[in-house]
Design goal:
The complex is a heterotrimer of chains A (about 300), B (about 270) and C (about 325).
Chain A lengths: L1 H12 L13 H5 L2 H23 L31 H37 L1 H16 L2 H12 L3 H28 L2 H8 L4 H37 L11 H7 L8 H29 L10
Chain B lengths: L8 E13 L2 E14 L3 E5 L6 H8 L7 E10 L2 E3 L1 H4 L4 E4 L3 H4 L6 H12 L3 H14 L5 H5 L8 H14 L4 E5 L7 H18 L2 E6 L2 H7 L2 E6 L2 E7 H6 L4 H13 L7
Parallel strand pairs in B: 3-8, 3-9, 6-7, 7-8
Antiparallel strand pairs in B: 1-2, 1-4, 4-5, 9-10
Chain C lengths: L2 H46 L5 H8 L6 H11 L5 H13 L13 H36 L4 H15 L2 H15 L12 H30 L2 H8 L4 H35 L8 H11 L2 H29 L1 H10 L1
Helix pairs in contact in C: 1-12, 1-13, 2-3, 5-6, 5-8, 5-10, 5-11, 6-8, 7-8, 8-10, 9-10, 10-11, 10-12, 12-13
The chains are: A mainly alpha (about 300), B alpha/beta (about 270), C mainly alpha (about 325).
Chain lengths: ~300, ~270, ~325
């Protein structure tokens, strides 16, 4: 409203959220609301289970015993057994390792590719930037699941190829973000000073530009991990990712299909595990975003 | 609305506006009272950020999100009114920077017709009335303009359109919030002349918000000076220019006179 | 200016706009073959340069023992002994006559089979798009209207669940509830609209969650614009302001996002089809991917590209129609 804009923007702009990094990291917990706290607890528990699963599963997740197939839950098999007599709880725990592990690898690949490609585009600028961003645009607009299906078709079935396919279909989001930040900082004095002091472009990038991108990359990655988890298990559900005997949540749901009408719990538990994990990661991502990067509010859906 | 007994007086009483900053309530407008009479222009002046535009908006309960009116009432001819009932009916508003005051995806016709529709004006006469008002506001080629979108028009044209919509509403009072800011000088002069002519002819009661003492000199009958959310001085325009009592008023005048050394003070 | 002349001028400007749109659409349509050609090159190269040998896959799928002699024969039969460019030219020449080769598994022509299954998939994705928009728009408006109130919290919860729910699991849950326990809807097959509800709902949950959040944010942003304040000051009712000045403008980003949803929904349909025995292209495509049935993968991917590009063209046209700034900028450019 007219000069009211002027009157208020100056006053209200400082409102809202505290500036990024205004407080120490430890206060994330103190300031977070209960959904974010629960999400943090669930995420930590998942990571712990995933890491410890080779040692702490109550039974061997792959031990077949047809004599005890499709047992209901009891004191020995807390969630019952599946159609081959394997302990469902143990398989869920082992599945956490596969799910989180593959997502972690995929995310590492995506971040590496995003930083290198986006950094190159932003740092070099000009034609290189143009060319890279044109390619990135294609990856940004095309539906990820269809692209991932094609990549698996080209590379072949299997978890490794699924991870590669997911990395190939997701790097562009990160590259674009890194490029944007690098472009906005490239002309600043401290970059020029660093170059004058004799640092190579790569050194300058790692020392001065990379840290600036970290907060936003972390937020985007946390928001994306759940989405990628759904991708991996979706492809495994279709039989294109993790293959049968390995315990993975998508595979477990696919295994349970024949029994879905008679033993619906077989399908229920792995789906619930997947749902809770993804929800926890998304909630954590939202909380991190609100805290580290309020400007990243625009929904990032793909 | 244009009954034989047109309202004579609009009074804003004890207006208070605050916002919340870092969990603490901050007062933006503090106990402001204003008295606008038909046929007279009251200028509300002050440095930018002093709360004068907010006074205008909040008195009609149209303050931006995050800002709330805490006290105050608005009365017409002594009868207190709900702000929502008089917006666009008894009080028309024109704003500065018309480019962003019009909805970019709607045409002038759509803008022009929704006001009468909201007031329940008979459908047959709506367009007639808008056309007449546009002609009064100095817009030629009405048909073409009604089909245009805001981004196809110049700032001056948009400001005229805004004035035309205010006229078409038939409201006896007009809140003009920095109506000439952001326009180039020649257009400013034309718009000022237009406002002067129309408000005099229609006998409108005008509340003119501005920080430009030149505009005050051209249009105002009385002046209220605002500083940090309070009214600090109210006087006739001649007295303000000749005998400013408050240092803030003197500063405003000095700033104005140093900008236009050639111009006389009234 | 006479009244007639004035009226003519109005007609003139409208006709001018129609022409602009026609030219805009035509230009985009001409771009379509170019994009398909580029996509076909990429798809072709990716499949040929992939880690496995098509001839070997061909023999495996035809159940022929892969002796060196058989491999040579297969290479020659499939044209794999030619240089890459010649292979592509050959493929393109046939593709221009709509011959996309034969499936290694069934030995049937690829395109007719794909086109046989495709309509069911598109129907499912289309239904899911309708559900997405029909549910998310009211939710988004509701949440924005009562910002930070209970409705906003409810919509936030729904959206948080929606973006975290695996669609294939949701499909099973819906089938358990509505087919097994309540017996309201058929669990399997494609038989009338009642069989469409559950798979479409399972697919659309995620996109409708994303869209409700997007629309909410977009509405709140639009509500802070100056033209909304002025609309209120002109005495428009809260509903008119919300509809004509907030929602009208807030829907523009939703139109753009819809282009993205189409791709996601088709992808979701490919996954969900197998759960509900929906006779779409999904199972055919997935088994082709599993078997590395190259001609099918190639044709399927190209079809998906074509559908996606066409859908985005439609979205762009709708956007240009909805946002005069874009429409008239296109006019300035042409």
């Amino acid at each position: 409203m007219s000069s009211l804009d002027g009157e208020l923007t100056g006053d209200l702009a400082g409102d809202g959220l505290p500036p990024p990094h205004a407080h120490g990291r430890a206060s994330f917990w103190r300031e977070a609301r209960w959904p974010a706290r629960m999400a943090a607890v669930v995420t930590c528990a998942l990571a712990l289970i995933a890491i410890l699963s080779p040692w702490v599963t109550p039974h061997d997740p792959n031990a077949v015993d047809l004599a005890i197939r499709l047992q209901p839950a009891d004191a020995v098999y807390w969630l019952g057994t599946d159609h081959l007599g394997r302990d469902i709880l143990s398989r869920l725990m082992a599945g956490a390792a596969v799910s989180l592990g593959s997502v972690a690898v995929a995310m590492a690949l995506i971040l590496t590719a995003g930083i290198i490609i986006g950094g190159t585009a932003g740092f070099l600028g000009g034609r290189v930037d143009q060319a890279i961003m044109r390619v990135a645009d294609v990856f940004l607009t095309f539906p990820t699941i269809v692209m991932a299906l094609f990549m698996v078709g080209a590379l072949g079935v299997g978890l490794t190829n699924v991870i590669i396919a997911i990395a190939v279909t997701h790097w562009a989001w990160y590259a674009r973000m890194v490029r944007g930040i690098v472009l906005s900082l490239r002309r600043r004095d401290f970059i020029a000073a660093s170059r004058l002091a004799g640092a190579s472009p790569a050194q300058t990038f790692v020392r001065h530009l990379l840290p600036a991108t970290m907060a936003q990359l972390l937020v985007l990655a946390t928001l994306d991990i759940g989405h990628i988890m759904l991708h991996v298990s979706g492809l495994s559900f279709l039989g294109l990712g993790v293959t049968a005997p390995t315990a993975e949540w998508g595979v477990m749901i696919a295994d349970a299909r024949e029994y879905v009408w008679t033993e619906p719990l077989l399908m229920f538990w792995p789906g619930l595990a997947l749902f809770i994990s993804v929800m926890a990661l998304n909630t954590l991502g939202d909380a991190l975003r609100d805290r580290l990067d309020p400007s990243l509010r625009a929904e990032h859906g793909h | 609305m244009t009954s034989s007994q047109s309202p004579r007086r609009l009074v804003i009483r004890n207006l208070g506006v605050e916002t919340t900053r870092h969990g603490v309530a901050v007062t933006l407008v503090d106990d402001v009272s204003l008295d606008v009479r038909a046929g007279e222009t009251l200028a509300l002046v002050g440095a930018s950020g002093c709360g004068k535009s907010l006074t205008c908006a909040a008195s009609l309960d149209a303050a931006p999100p995050g800002v709330r009116r805490t006290t105050g009432s608005i009365a017409i001819d002594g009868v207190e009114q709900a702000p929502a009932d008089i917006r666009g009916r008894l009080v028309a508003t024109i704003l500065q920077n018309p480019r962003s005051a019009f909805n970019p995806v709607r045409t002038m016709r759509q803008h022009a017709m929704e006001g009468p529709a909201a007031r329940g004006a008979p459908a047959a006469s709506r367009e007639q009335r808008v056309r007449a008002a546009m002609a009064d506001a100095g817009l030629e080629d009405v048909d073409r303009i009604l089909d245009l979108h805001p981004f196809e028009m110049s700032g001056g044209m948009l400001q005229r359109m805004m004035i035309a919509l205010a006229l078409a509403s038939g409201a006896p009072f007009l809140f003009a919030d920095e109506p000439t800011t952001d326009l180039d000088l020649i257009v400013q002069r034309d718009i000022l002349n237009l406002l002067l002519r129309l408000t005099r002819r229609q006998g409108l009661g005008v509340l003119l918000v501005t920080h430009d003492m030149g505009v005050v000199a051209a249009l105002a009958d009385r002046v209220a000076v605002m500083d940090a959310g309070r009214i600090i001085e109210t006087a006739r325009v001649m007295d303000i220019f000749n005998r400013p009592t408050h240092p803030v008023t003197r500063n405003l005048l000095d700033a104005h006179l140093s900008l236009y050394p050639g111009r006389s003070a009234a | 200016m006479s009244a007639l002349a004035r009226r003519n001028q109005g007609v003139e400007s409208r006709r001018r706009t129609d022409w602009t749109m026609a030219r805009f659409i035509l230009r985009r349509l001409l771009l379509l073959p170019v994009m398909l050609l580029a996509a076909s090159v990429v798809i072709f190269l990716m499949l040929r340069l992939g880690p496995s040998d098509p001839a070997l896959d061909y023999l495996r799928l035809s159940r022929v023992p892969p002796t060196p002699q058989a491999l040579d024969e297969a290479r020659r039969a499939l044209g794999l002994d030619l240089p890459l460019i010649a292979q592509y030219a050959d493929w393109l020449w046939k593709a221009l006559r709509l011959d996309f080769g034969q499936s290694y598994v069934t030995s049937r022509p690829v395109l007719p089979d794909l086109l046989h299954y495709l309509p069911a998939t598109l129907q499912l994705a289309g239904a899911a798009l309708v559900i997405t928009l029909a549910v998310s728009v009211p939710l988004g408006v509701w949440a924005a209207r009562y910002r930070d109130g209970l409705p906003d919290q409810i919509v936030r919860l729904i959206a948080a669940v929606g973006v975290s729910m695996p669609n294939f699991w949701l499909g099973f849950l819906l089938a358990l509830l509505f087919s097994v326990h309540l017996g309201w809807l058929p669990a399997m097959g494609r038989d009338g609209w009642s069989s469409l509800i559950m798979p479409a709902a399972a697919i659309s949950f995620m996109t409708l969650s994303i869209n409700a959040r997007l629309l909410r944010a977009s509405m709140l942003e639009a509500a802070g614009q100056r033209h909304v304040a002025w609309a209120r000051l002109r005495g428009l009712s809260p509903r008119t302001v919300e509809r004509s000045h907030v929602l009208r403008n807030a829907l523009l980003p939703v139109i753009t996002a819809t282009g993205m949803y189409v791709g996601e929904l088709i992808g979701g349909a490919l996954v969900i089809e197998s759960i509900f025995g929906w006779p779409g292209v999904g199972r055919y495509a997935v088994s082709a991917i599993f078997n590395r049935d190259y001609p099918v993968i190639q044709c399927f991917t190209l079809l998906m590209v074509a559908i996606f590009v066409i859908c985005n063209l439609i979205v762009d046209i709708i956007y240009a129609w909805a946002d005069p700034r874009v429409r008239l900028a296109a006019e300035g450019a042409s």
